[in-house]
Design goal:
8 helices, about 70% helix, mainly alpha
């Protein structure tokens, strides 16, 4: 038997919808993780910054091409993989590419190694939880980056953390997530980022 479809109602058109889309785009996990890598490399291993950004560009390009292919072929309802059944492939690809990026950066020898491992752990938890709840990866990535950056660059961390309520509103306004999914994603990101900060 196939899994029952769990979908959220389409948001009603309004001026707030455009703002919600812009916020979700500006604070997309691609943008947040790229900013995190940039700051972490700048603070921990400046010589590796070009290599880190090249690796991130390849990761983002591959994931984005995969997402567009799934959406344009009609296999996904949105570019956000909004239905829980659409997410396992996305998680699998993200984990594979995160492992590749970790290897590209030098594995355990890289000062960025622990951050990459923490991001992989966060994706694993979100992927396992997907059976019961479709955690917001937008919120998880933002809270992870904001919390982890507290030890590297506090002003940047505060900007990300202060943006969290607006991003939460945008995900709800776009009907991409329910309130428990938004709060659960935020909690996951904060816990994993906090663990990285304290490690």
């Amino acid at each position: 038997m196939s899994e029952p479809q769990r979908s959220l109602p389409e948001p009603a058109a309004s001026p707030g919808l455009g703002a919600a889309r812009v916020l979700s785009l500006l604070l997309h996990p691609f943008a947040v993780f790229t900013a995190l890598v940039l700051v972490a490399a700048w603070q921990l291993d400046p010589a590796a910054l070009p290599k880190a950004l090249l690796g991130m560009a390849v990761v983002v390009a591959i994931v984005w091409a995969f997402v567009l292919q799934r959406w344009r072929s009609g296999r996904w309802s949105t570019v956000d993989a909004s239905r829980p059944r659409e997410r396992p492939l996305l998680y699998g690809l993200a984990l594979l590419l995160a492992g590749g990026w970790w290897w590209w950066m030098g594995g355990r020898a890289s000062p960025l190694s622990s951050g990459a491992a923490a991001a992989v752990a966060m994706l694993c938890v979100a992927g396992l939880a997907n059976r019961w709840i479709k955690l917001s990866l937008h919120m998880a990535s933002l809270l992870f980056a904001g919390t982890a950056l507290l030890g590297l660059w506090a002003p940047g961390a505060m900007v990300l953390l202060l943006a969290a309520p607006s991003l939460a509103w945008s995900r709800l306004r776009l009907a991409r997530h329910t309130l428990p999914e938004v709060l659960g994603g935020a909690l996951l990101g904060a816990l994993v980022g906090g663990g990285l900060l304290l490690a």
